[in-house]
Amino acid sequence: MLIETSNIIVLKLGSSTVVDGRGKFKKKWVTTLIKDIKRYGKNKKFVIVSSGAIALGQKYFKINKKKIKLDMSQAIAAVGQIHLASEFQKLFEKYKIKTGQILISPDDTEQRRRALNVRRTFDNLFKLNAIPIVNENDTTATAEIKYGDNDRLAARVAQIIGADTLIILSDVDGVMLPNGELVSHLNAATARQMITDGIITGGMIPKVETCIEAVRHGVETVHIINGNKEHALLLEILTDTGIGTMMFE
Ligand code: GLU
What's the farthest any 2 CA atoms get from each other in the chain? Predict the structure, then answer.
């Protein structure tokens, strides 16, 4: 679904989309995104699900290790999340757009009553014209009760709030065929078959499974886009579906 016909759009920004290789918040990229959002004015509602708390926290403490124990990464996320939210808040504020922070645990989306409550909070933020900036509540979740990754969190949020479009920006170009060709359009049944047939492999499997679940639960289209490319700006993504992979039911 193109942006002209979408009402509620969830943007999932992966760590590598918002934090560069040296651990710095990518102000320039995020500013371009904010300018895009601004162009749509109040006609569309945007939600940002952003990773990056742990990456920014690591930079702050100068910890370079790839593998950090869960309990320590929770403490690092506690620090990094403040930085992440504050970076977004400062940049959006420059363009006179208000933001609010929502930290979610699986309990909040998997239990009906709590999910309804979450939905109300989003609705009220929309009424206040504030853009929700969402992340997993990393500081309290244990390994067994984590979403696993922010793709899943973003998909659950999109379902609960009745979003039409979910855009997943990460460091992959989209779904690729073994010959390196990009699949620009993909329906859920074909995607499932491609996983069964071993055409979709590795880290792409959970990503695509998350997309399948989202489109089967009412999100009309999910886009998998490379957020590290200059072209990956909202306007282009949503007016030219040839960028990345667009998935639908
Ligand atoms: N919530 C984690 C963070 O902000 C990232 C999880 C993910 O990207 O899947 O660092």
Answer: 49
